[in-house]
Amino acid sequence: MAVDEAGGTRTEGAVHPVDEVLRPGRLLAGGLQHVAASYAGVVAPPLVLGAYLGLPPARTTFLVGAALFTAGIATLLQTIGFWKVGARMPFVNGVSFAGVAPMIAVADAQADKSDALPVVFGAVMVAGALGFVLAPWFCKLVRFFPPLVSGTVITLIGLTLLPVAFGWIQGGGDPGRPATATGLGLAAATLVIVLVLRRVLRGFLRQIAILLGLAAGTLIAVPVGAVDFAPAAHARLVGFPTPFHFGAPQFTLPAIVSMCVLMLVCMTESTADMLALGQVVGRPADERTIARGLRADTLGTAVSPVFNGFANSAFAQNIGLVAITRVRSRFVVAACGAMFVLLGLSPAFASLIAVVPRPVLGGAGIVLFGTVAASGIQVLLGAGLDKGDNLLVAAASLGIGTIPVVSRTFYDGAGVPETLRTLLDSGVSAGCLTAVVLNLAFNHLGKRRRDEASPGLSPGLSPGPSPQPSPSPVRGD
């Protein structure tokens, strides 16, 4: 038996680090760190939608609790799983922010916005069921994700997430609003603390440097008045998300079509995230893993509306946390899922996480999300950019994928249909589709000799022997 840095015990060569069960204390601390990294992403969509629908604070709070509860269920499905459901990887699943725009569009189509939620929930249930049925076929797209494509997509995931961290530093409000001196100071202090802790600490404490940095940043924020304790003061201790609290689901064709398009976008992003995480943890995601992961995503989505939740997808920000901490155990993320369920059942405890100031989250987010982008660059370096037109494929895909990152209003005046906007407004999906198409055009459709085409093709497309999976960009200890 051996004890690794993460605190797990295993027989040498018998258990992959993804399947290790860590000691209880380290399991809980690691899970809490994932909660801190993803909490803001889980609660943001219900907060935005609740405000747009004009819901009173109590009902918006209920939506937030439901989002946490259903995110926990979806995360447990993904990490623990059953039958052919769940990738069994350290994946956090939560409410997809890509669904906010389609849900607002559905609300705008109603005579009274306050009646929109049952229509949204009905459409989400149908979209989740459709995605579950399509998962065994959708997973076969993995053959179109050689290192050239997957490296581009992983880089885009990081680049797409970085503006989220910048928005947190600005206070989480209008992206055009400049950051305050207090916000910049808190973000800088948190970033420096995380870097110093990663440099000087060893063992378990080094692995929870992000969590320690968030705690330290919050303590620094208290004397400058940047911590709001009001949510914790008025939150109830116990609150269960009553099934169909906003009424029985309603099924209308326009809303269903809109949510089905969203589901396909979420499945594309989840596929890319699974490929990225597979590289990070040293267990490349194959078709079987992706099919299981997509079933967990879509089943969680189909069930969420029962408890007043929305469409779920994999959270890319947690990939950065896995890469930095090098704790690859899926049971750590399962502990995060269990905590989300408990937070959904106890608004008072959920509000304690909410007191962490957004600028503090932003300072840590720079490290988390930058690590994802750097991991993608590492994969691209091994993808043969010096061969054929691979550099051109990566360049064009990164350029198109960063359009919505740089300007959210880029397509506003072009008359682009709303369903297409759902795809184009997702930098990961737009860049992913571009990379797949260009890789096929330049490396597969008879425009290069076999020896030139092989570096840019996946095992399923290459005319020669199947290449070995690219090495993990970030290795565990």
TrEMBL record:
<feature type="transmembrane region" description="Helical">
    <location>
        <begin position="391"/>
        <end position="411"/>
    </location>
</feature>
<feature type="transmembrane region" description="Helical">
    <location>
        <begin position="331"/>
        <end position="354"/>
    </location>
</feature>
<feature type="transmembrane region" description="Helical">
    <location>
        <begin position="36"/>
        <end position="55"/>
    </location>
</feature>
<feature type="transmembrane region" description="Helical">
    <location>
        <begin position="423"/>
        <end position="442"/>
    </location>
</feature>
<feature type="transmembrane region" description="Helical">
    <location>
        <begin position="148"/>
        <end position="169"/>
    </location>
</feature>
<feature type="transmembrane region" description="Helical">
    <location>
        <begin position="181"/>
        <end position="201"/>
    </location>
</feature>
<dbReference type="InterPro" id="IPR006043">
    <property type="entry name" value="NCS2"/>
</dbReference>
<feature type="transmembrane region" description="Helical">
    <location>
        <begin position="208"/>
        <end position="227"/>
    </location>
</feature>
<dbReference type="GO" id="GO:0005886">
    <property type="term" value="C:plasma membrane"/>
</dbReference>
<dbReference type="InterPro" id="IPR006042">
    <property type="entry name" value="Xan_ur_permease"/>
</dbReference>
<keyword id="KW-0812">Transmembrane</keyword>
<feature type="transmembrane region" description="Helical">
    <location>
        <begin position="247"/>
        <end position="267"/>
    </location>
</feature>
<keyword id="KW-1133">Transmembrane helix</keyword>
<feature type="transmembrane region" description="Helical">
    <location>
        <begin position="61"/>
        <end position="83"/>
    </location>
</feature>
<comment type="similarity">
    <text>Belongs to the nucleobase:cation symporter-2 (NCS2) (TC 2.A.40) family.</text>
</comment>
<dbReference type="Pfam" id="PF00860">
    <property type="entry name" value="Xan_ur_permease"/>
</dbReference>
<feature type="transmembrane region" description="Helical">
    <location>
        <begin position="360"/>
        <end position="384"/>
    </location>
</feature>
<dbReference type="GO" id="GO:0042907">
    <property type="term" value="F:xanthine transmembrane transporter activity"/>
</dbReference>
<keyword id="KW-1003">Cell membrane</keyword>
<feature type="region of interest" description="Disordered">
    <location>
        <begin position="449"/>
        <end position="477"/>
    </location>
</feature>
<keyword id="KW-0813">Transport</keyword>
<protein>
    <submittedName>
        <fullName>Purine permease</fullName>
    </submittedName>
</protein>
<keyword id="KW-0472">Membrane</keyword>
<feature type="compositionally biased region" description="Pro residues">
    <location>
        <begin position="462"/>
        <end position="477"/>
    </location>
</feature>
<feature type="transmembrane region" description="Helical">
    <location>
        <begin position="119"/>
        <end position="139"/>
    </location>
</feature>
<dbReference type="InterPro" id="IPR017588">
    <property type="entry name" value="UacT-like"/>
</dbReference>
